[in-house]
Model the fold of this input.
Amino acid sequence: MPGFPEPPLSPPVIEPEGGGLVLRPWRDGDRHMLREAAVDPALVDIGGVPRLSSEQAAMGFIAHQRRLAREGVGYPLVVDGHGAAVGAVGLWRDRMDAGRASAGYWLLPAARGRGLASRAVAALARWGLEELGLARVELHIEPWNTASLRVAERAGFEREGLLRSYLELNGRRRDLVVWSVVAARCTP
Done:
């Protein structure tokens, strides 16, 4: 059956095509990027970035990302562009028993608009399909988030439809658009 190997693989280092970008495990030094992300209301609201009150809170979040990887919950990775942490991506095993995984991503404002997110998401999905043997990788995006919808399309995902009241985030039910890429259509 497709899915995550047991025991879980250690977090990978993935180098997307085109150079200058690496997806890698979280490091202590990434706390500076995380602190910068924590002041962006959009990243806190929908990107999974916690509000951080201290250096200790940032280090706790990084430790949590490492623990998620060790426990096989998924593969949380940092998007590293030319030696600087600029965002995060993750592949999550919540539907692994059916050969599916969901992906998520965010970038710091200064790193947006250069195609980094599309390259990172495409590389992560390709890795999941090829290395983990997944049949499908999904993205769930709020309908109003046009920049993220463009990322999904440019990364080779196909829009499938609207999931009404699909998820609760920060105390509000949210509609999400589901996108997917499947193994049969993944081109290395």
Observations:
- The longest helix spans residues 55-70.
- The chain has five helices and seven strands.
